[in-house]
Amino acid sequence: MTVFPLTGDHAWLATQRLPEVTVHASGVLAQTIRAEVRQTRRFRTDVQVAVCTLSRVRETALWQEVEAAVPEHGLGVEGFVVVRRGNDLVVAAEGGHGLLYGYFYVLRYFEWMTSDFTVVERPAVPIRMLDHWDELSGEVRRGYAGKSIFFRDGEAVPDLTRVRAYARLLASIGINAVSLAAAELPDVARLAGVFREYGIAVSLAVDFIDDPRDERVAAWWSATVARVYDVVPDLGGLVVRSARDAEGANLLARAVAPYGGTVFWRCSGAEPEPDWRDRRADRARAAYDTFVPLDGRFEENVVLQVKHGPLDFQVREPVSPLLGEIQETAFGIELQVTQEYSGQQQDLCYLGPWWREILQSDTTGGGGATVADRIGAIVAVSNVGDDVNWTGHKLAQSNLYAFGRLAWDPAADPVSLLHEWAAATFAMDDRTRSELVAIMAGSWRTYERYTAPLGVGFMVTPGSHYGPSVNGYEYSGRGAHHYADRYGVGADRTVKTGSGFTAQYPEPLSSLYEDIYTCPDELLLFFHHVPYDHVLQSGSTVLQHIYDTHFQGYAEVEAMVARWQAIAERFEPVVRENVSARFAVQLATAREWRDQVNTFFYRLSGVPDALGRTIHR
What we know:
The protein is α/β, with parallel strands linked by helices. Among the domains are: 17-121, 2-Layer Sandwich (Chitobiase, domain 2), CATH 3.30.379; 127-269 and 306-413, Glycosidases (TIM Barrel). Helices cover 35% and strands 14% of the residues. The chain has 19 helices and 19 strands. The chain has helices at 28-39, 63-69, 96-109, 161-172, 185-196, 215-231, 248-256, 286-291, 322-325, 352-359, 371-374, 397-408, 414-425, 430-441, 443-450, 509-514, 524-527, 542-567, 573-605; strands at 17-18, 21-24, 41-42, 48-53, 80-85, 88-93, 117-121, 127-131, 151-152, 155-156, 177-181, 201-208, 237-243, 262-266, 302-307, 331-336, 377-381, 488-489, 530-531. A hairpin with a 2-residue loop joins strand 9 (151-152) and strand 10 (155-156). The longest helix is centred in the C-terminal third of the chain and has 33 residues, at 573-605. The N and C termini lie far apart (66 Å). It holds the Pfam family Glyco_hydro_67M. One of its GO terms (cellular component) is extracellular region. Residues 115-390 form the Glycosyl hydrolase family 67 catalytic domain.
């Protein structure tokens, strides 16, 4: 494997270092590890690090300790063991994938490893994938960090150095799959070759608009897939971004099955006719109504890719009922690392706490299986582009890092992950790191406070999806969302008087959401239309809560900016300027959210703020 110089922004691989490492393994991924060793900064210490397959572990000083640590059921393809005793440290695994992840584990934690220990790790979710909605033109759908790092002017970029650097970043956090646009076969082969060096399988993103019952369609896809696998034999499969007919999943699955491929079918569902006048026409019902009747009718190599919420990646939604209801079909959860509805990498919004909350959600409501327990894949739309720092906002790198780490371990603590990321990304003292983490850790909650209240969603500018537009989507083809009038606000999704969406959840969740007095405050307006003077479980009225949280959210952004300014000089100029500029935009945007939302509800209700704060009338 060729060693390429590390150039540009190294993200969380910027500060890490190791002593000399010996590698007792062979194969493509062993060569990758050797290349990593050659380009990793050195750390002077007496500790000797060995990376070896279990078949060669007896070549190391700690072979007995390693063999004793291997679980009875083995490590699997991706698991690894790390053992340290005194000045000897051994990473061992069944093969190359586990060794690569074990190597990056040691790289991440080595300078914190100060005593003897034994660690055994296996990923909780077998497929950990990032979808890239990059067009061959170089544009990126829902991209907020520049143009594509893969494509330009209809073909793959000639220099894949940055793609290799990206593959390295993904492998370091345990990502093992990506989807890319279906380019010309030589370009697909070149890109797949780079990702292969880091144990990452490439799938192709396609749109399926054909009639799956037409034999000519089946023949065309079968022949096309065969040509692709001739060039890329280890292709992961196909990711269907959009489609008209779910039966197409089986057609594509049969086409890729002879090659061991998988079809990832995004569950958008057949949405109701777009009529804001019809309060029972509910987009939230669509995926469940479409796919639950089809459960068990898909081929074994189909994975249903379910959005985490029933709508569209809003800053607060209930967990999709599909994630608890699918029983006979393989499925995964889809998240958004790209911040489409959470600030678009202009506003700081660290999503780790939200994702962990989703992954640990009880799908039964009665202490049963969590989302993480049930899924076979965790997928997200990537947030990278060709901006110098990958993500536009330097601090948005934390979301990519957190996604990978939570995909490996859904129970990981998001604040601890922030500390990991910050320590690996910036050369700074512990006090500065703690201050940066304090600024970032609660930023998702802050964003929620100054944007859409109590689970309403979609109060964004149509098209761009950035900034406030309270009625922007209210009379659009997407259907109404907040239904605000002079008496109250919220969407009625109850069985008794609304769209019946609450019935898609099992008991006791269905009854919990159906009852206005037991529905969690943060989701109240997602499920119920309530009077402004309805008293929340917090003790505040709905209207006062709207006023309070929007004033609070703006004040928290002001505090974030002030705290950043106090430590900004400790960062390199390029980081300081990038983050400071983004905070200036966020502060102005938060002010608009606060004033527009509060004024909208004051004008409707005529009820002033109980604390007498300024609301523009």
